[in-house]
Amino acid sequence: MTSTTGRRTRRALVALLGISSLVLAACGGSDDSSTEEPAAEPAAAEEPAEASADPVRIALVAPSAINDLAFTQSMYDSVQRVADNRDVTLDVSDGLFIVEDAGAALRGYAEDGYDLVIAHGTQFGGPLEEIAPDFPEVSFMWGTSTDFKGLDNIYAYSVRSDHGGYVNGTIAAQITESGTVGVVGPVEAGDAKLYVDGFVAGAAAQNPDVVVNVNYIESFSDVALAAEAATSHIASGADVLTGTAQMVVGATGVAQAEGVPWFGTQSNQTALGEDIVVASQVYHWEVIIEPILDQIANGTLGGEVFELTLANGGLVIEFNDAFGLDSAIQSAAEETVAGLTSGEVSTGL
């Protein structure tokens, strides 16, 4: 259902997509007057009703499909949750893994005067740095990154994905029987690297004898290569897998076929295999989108970094009840979540 190129309207989050809210008709005042005695003051004309505020126009440019059960869907779902509380419209250009195409979409949305343009991909930083100065009245979000490029109309956003990685790693170290766990990574950057590093740290903290093999395939989108990496891990003795980014559907397909437990991140990945997905770290970007929209409304268009954490509710560990994780292991994981939230536990990253 989703287009993979170009710019298109996804849906209406208000009653009429792309149409500004109707202006309420002004109510006319009465001009009747008494003829028996003069009025001390003429009747005040009734104030016209104020026009209803236009919806906030948000555009999302993303490298993969909005239903990827990973990076792009995490942002798409989050904007929809924002729409539960605010009058917003959302236009999406998804599947733009070619950076030049993403740059063209970003510029197009800026030219159209969107209130907030989200460049959802670390790889989009180059074109955004060139585009944003040309549109000082447009606010941009870019992530994952902790660098707003010194521009006052870019909000950078990041995520402590090592937190969920750490929790998942502690569980993986307890359920592996072979003592070997495999990780399928995309490009060694951004939240992907942080998740992988957190996972490795968590497994080591739980059981230093567990071997965690990491394979970065140098692609966010190569599903076939992710499948090959998963197959290689299993051949090398891994009986538990995890991975991050939109190409993991290739790895989860292999895990499903081989009956190997899987740990997800970014979105809830239970739908990729109810019998294999143990738990997922889920990104709730609405935690930062809400305050960013407030700041835009007050005239601040950027120049700040926002971050998702367990403590601010931007990260949530969602367990798959259908997997049947041992209750003692789940309780221990929940204690780890509490420790990371309070600061008593550290990933060391």
In angstroms, what separates the terminal alpha carbons? 39 Å
Low-confidence stretches: 1-52
Total helix count? 9
Which class do the helix and strand fractions yield?
Answer: alpha/beta
- Gross morphology is globular
CATH class of one domain reads: Alpha Beta
In percent terms, what proportion of residues is strand? 15-25%
**N-to-C SSE string, H for helix and E for strand:** EEHEHEHEEHEHEHEHEEHEEH
Oligomer: single chain
**What portion of residues is helical?**
25-40%
| Order of strands in the sheet with most strands | 1-3-2-4-5-6-12
Number of extended strands? 13
Main β-sheet: number of strands, strand sense, barrel status? 7 strands, mixed
The radius of gyration over CA amounts to: 25 Å
Mean pLDDT equals 88
| CATH homologous superfamily title of one domain | Response regulator
What's the CATH topology label of one domain? Rossmann fold
CATH architecture level-2 label of one domain:
3-Layer(aba) Sandwich
Notes on the protein architecture:
The chain is α/β, with parallel strands linked by helices. The chain has a domain at 161-283 and 315-342: Rossmann fold, CATH 3.40.50. It contains nine helices and 13 strands. A seven-stranded mixed sheet has the order 1-3-2-4-5-6-12, with helices on both faces. Strands 8-7-9-10-11-13 form a six-stranded mixed sheet, with helices on both faces. Strand 9, helix 7 (248-258) and strand 10 form a beta-alpha-beta unit. Helix 4 (161-175) packs parallel to helix 5 and helix 6 runs parallel beside helix 7 (248-258). The two termini are 39 Å apart. Residues 1-52 have low confidence and may be disordered.
